[in-house]
Design brief:
Radius of gyration: 23 Å
CATH architecture of the largest domain: Up-down Bundle
Number of domains: 2
CATH class of the largest domain: Mainly Alpha
Order of helices and strands: HHHEEHHHHHHHH
Helix content: over 70%
CATH superfamily of the largest domain: GntR ligand-binding domain-like
Largest sheet: 2 strands, antiparallel
Number of helices: 11
Oligomer: single chain
Structural class: mainly alpha
Distance between the termini: 33 Å
Strand order of the largest sheet: 1-2
CATH topology of the largest domain: Four Helix Bundle (Hemerythrin (Met), subunit A)
């Protein structure tokens, strides 16, 4: 294998790392247009190809958006959970991971979260869950109703207060949200029945959280997650993550 030049890519990585650090620390806020290429080249003491290679690295991480044309340039952006889920989906696909594995991972994460909420009974979290349950009760069939039902799960993770667990849960939530939208019926008797059961279970779990029943809340939630997995993946157990996200 012939290696022609290692200096340029290495320097590009250093430029990307410095800009990334400034983005993450908020020194260059989201939405900011970066200075023209000529200014950045002078600032970092690099060539145009090196700067553009750094831009390609940051763009691949969804940290900047490149706009072409006279009024173009690089704008600072924020990576979202969809970006994270897509990268994770590629890795999970290479590992031969099925959607069933993802649902099982969600159960392993969310069950302790529900137990923690029941143990602490935070008023703000309970109020938010009550609001979601109320909207579930009023929702009709269709994708909107499925989204509201799925939102209850997302709120469980968001309200635990553990940022690391929330990030992992959000990644799985994005994958499962797509599965819920594409792999289960959105209309008809089976769909309506499934939504009613989910809404009823959410209400029951919330009541157990309010009472501080840690064992009851976690047991019911785990059972609910297993049933949801069976319902969505029935006949699709072998489907992979990338099949869904592609």
């Amino acid at each position: 294998m012939k290696v022609t030049n290692l200096r340029e890519p290495k320097m590009a990585d250093r430029v990307a790392a410095e800009l990334r650090r400034q983005f993450i620390r908020g020194e260059i806020p989201e939405g900011t247009m970066l200075p023209p290429e000529s200014e950045l080249m002078a600032q970092f003491g690099v060539s145009r190809p090196t700067l553009r290679e750094a831009f390609r690295v940051l763009e691949s991480e969804s940290l900047i958006e490149i706009r072409r044309g006279v009024h173009g340039g690089a704008r600072v952006s924020r990576p979202d959970r969809e970006t994270l889920a897509r990268y994770a989906g590629l890795i999970l696909e290479y590992e031969g991971v099925s959607l069933k594995d993802v649902y099982e991972a969600r159960a392993a994460l969310e069950t302790p979260m529900v137990a923690d909420l029941a143990r602490r009974r935070p008023k703000k979290a309970i109020a938010e869950l009550e609001e979601i349950v109320a909207r579930e009760a009023q929702a009709a069939q269709g994708r909107d109703a499925i989204d509201i039902s799925t939102e209850f799960h997302a709120a469980i993770a968001r309200l635990t207060g553990n940022a690391s667990m929330q990030m992992m849960s959000e990644m799985l939530h994005h994958i499962i949200e797509k599965a819920n939208r594409t792999m289960q019926p959105t209309a008809g008797v089976p769909a309506a029945s499934a939504l009613r059961r989910a809404s009823k279970t959410h209400t029951m779990v919330l009541d157990l959280i309010k009472k501080g029943d840690v064992d009851g809340a976690s047991a019911l939630w785990n059972k609910h997650l297993r049933k949801a997995e069976e319902y969505v993946l029935s006949g699709n157990e072998a489907s992979t993550v990338l099949d869904l996200l592609a």
